Amino acid sequence: MSTATHVSLLVLLLAASLHTRCLADLYGNPSPPSPPPGSAVSGKTFFPCGMGTKCGGANGMAFACPQQCPDIKPSNPKQKGCSVDCSSQKCEAVCKGMGANCNGRGAGCQDPRFIGGDGVMFYFHGKKNEHFSLVSDYGLQVNARFIGRRPTGRSRDNTWIQGLGLMFGSNSFTLEANKVAQWDDQVDQLRFTYNGIPLSIPPVHLSAWTAPDELLAVERTANCNRVTVVLPGLVEMLVNVVPVTKEDDRIHKYQIPSDDCFAHLEVQFKFSHLSEDVEGVLGQTYRPGFQSPVKRGVPMPVMGGEDKFKTSSLVSADCKRCIFATDASAANPLELDPSMTVDCTSKTSNGRGIACHR
After folding, report:
1. 149-182: per-residue pLDDT in tens?
2. Do 134 and 125 contact (CB within 8 A), yes or no?
3. Which of 143, 112, 119, 164 is CA-nearest to residue 340?
4. Where are the domains of the chain?
5. Which long-range contacts (CB under 8 A, 24 or more apart) does 286-294 make?
6. DSSP states of 154-220 as a string?
7. pLDDT attached to residue 47
8. Residues 6 or more apart from 206 whose CB is under 8 A from it?
């Protein structure tokens, strides 16, 4: 083999090995930031809220971003973005992190720890290698696949959310974390499908994919392992992929094996439409008058109901309490509290065993 051929082959092999890495070239240089959209230019006034929304009024309302976060979609994924909740009472632009906030309302993180729509924190353990409905409504179904292990001497599984499945109309979308032995922040571990067909979204900050009918949009908010999924008029999902760290393993005694770091999802939902009959582990907590059955003031308040919310797959609505229907026209809409983030921590608590106040 000639020297030139040998060099060419080496370059091709190196390129292939970097296919899933969040790098821009063969020399390991970080991906260059994507240019922000025109509306993200520092100091520019923008109109994020449409007419008829609380913050849009009859003619729409202009907002100026704070100096601390002048861009709507910052080119640096570590920076906060400028955001306006168009259904809020204050109607102001604020700085917002681009990933899931595990102490925010609608969040599901860790050994699944949720913040309900009523502001109450609870755990839902489920069972490893099973699926459960997080939200079941007339026009939206959100399921989760749980992974986990049962340490020696324990009476239950430690579980984490490995995948999410959405059903809306006649469509479905899934988002999953790969099984990983050793975690590397520079390797993307997300995989996607739309209506059962695998999707490829380049691991570059602000790269995006939109469904052919424009009913669903997925955008990366970091080079690797962080995305925002939007179903206009229904829900926005902020999703991070993280491992169970050695420190987590030491503290909680999970007994994590050396060949699996249990990469899992942290997710935060922001709903823009739900019905009064909404069901699911998380969805039920948004119903008016919902009384949380979890015990207050205990280290780990647990929400039961595994038998009621268990589904057969990520994209099925066959649980006992599921109400999903492709036609949601008969649903009575629920007036949602616009506040998305609540304080679930204090100087002496990490949020366990307390109610989170709006």
Report:
1. 998 888 889 999 999 999 999 999 999 999 999 9
2. no
3. 119
4. 56-98, 99-311
5. 286/116, 286/117, 286/118, 286/334, 286/336, 287/117, 287/334, 288/334, 290/117, 290/118, 292/116, 292/118, 292/120, 292/122, 294/120, 294/122
6. -SS-EEEEEEEEEEETTEEEEEEEPP-SS--TTB--EEEEETTEEE---SSTT-EEE-TTSS-EEEE
7. 63
8. 33, 34, 36, 73, 75, 219, 220, 221
pLDDT of residue 20: 54
Average pLDDT, the chain: 83
As a whole number of angstroms, the distance between CA 233 and CA 158 comes to 35
Q: How many Cα atoms within 13 Å fall on the side-chain side of residue 284?
A: 18
Prediction pTM value? 0.81
The residues, any chain, with a CB within 8 Å of residue 200's CB and separated by 6 or more, are: none
Q: How far apart (Å, rounded) are the C-alpha atoms in residues 93 and 39?
A: 14
